[in-house]
Amino acid sequence: MSASLQKLLTEQAPNTSGLHEAMALHTEAIFKEFKGILPLFLGKREGGPFVNLTLPNSVTESSEALLQTICDLIWVYKLRVISFVSAIRMPNEETGQHEMSALLITADKAHAYFQLPWKLTFDENQDITAAQRSTAASDLIPREIWSQLFASKVTPDNRTISYDRLIERFGSADELPQP
Predict the structure, then answer these.
(1) What are the Cα distances from residue 6, in Å, to 1, 10, 49, 108, 157?
(2) Which residue has the higher pLDDT, 10 or 139?
(3) How many CB atoms sit inside 10 A of residue 79's CB?
């Protein structure tokens, strides 16, 4: 975990909404520093350390792959809270045209759920020049999905299958923390 994210986490309330705001502030710092979207994942284990990963492009290119990977991470690492940011195409409220945006979702086992979309402005080089926090009329990814993922009873066989899928998506077991 980066030092800047650790610092932000200590400055926020020690709960799910505090983690969400720390991730939002960290994401906005990345927009400014790198002029792009870094697909980050942060999860808190039940009785263990945080899991912090950069999600591969192959995971963020489709909503199905993203949701399956998040599910696998929850199951393999026995996570009680997750927060992740990813690029997403969302309709512009004025034109209806789909535009590249960023979305932060934070959810936990106790059914807390937060989402934060950003409206992004890009220059001719596709670098982010401005990011504005936005609101979404409805949950972009339904909150019921998160409740189901955290409530699932996971067998050792399912956990092994999920870990194998993560190794395939991340390229090697070296890219992942120990379960």
Answers:
(1) 7, 6, 12, 19, 34
(2) 10
(3) 24
Tokens of 159: 């956990």
Write out pLDDT tens, residues 85-124.
Answer: 988 877 777 787 888 888 899 999 998 889 899 988 899 9
Contact 45/178 with Cβ under 8 angstroms?
A: no
Q: What is the value of pTM for the model shown?
A: 0.88
Q: What is the percentage of the chain residues whose pLDDT exceeds 90? A: 49
CA 102 to CA 32: how far, in whole Å? 14
Q: Above 90 in pLDDT, residue 5?
A: no
| Largest pairwise CA distance in the chain | 49
CA 176, distance to chain mean position in Å, is 16
- Give the span between the Cα atoms of 75 and 106, in whole angstroms: 16
Please answer whether residues 82 and 96 qualify as being in contact, where contact means their C-beta atoms are separated by less than 8 angstroms. no
3-state DSSP of the chain: CCHHHHHHHHHCCCCHHHHHHHHHHHHHHHHHHHCCCCCEEEEEECCCCEEEEECCHHHHCCHHHHHHHHHHHHHHHCEEEEEEEEEEEEECCCCCCEEEEEEEEEEECCCCEEEEEEEEEECCCCCEEEEEECCCCCCCCCHHHHHHHHHCCCCHHHHHHHHHHHHHHHCCHHHCCCC
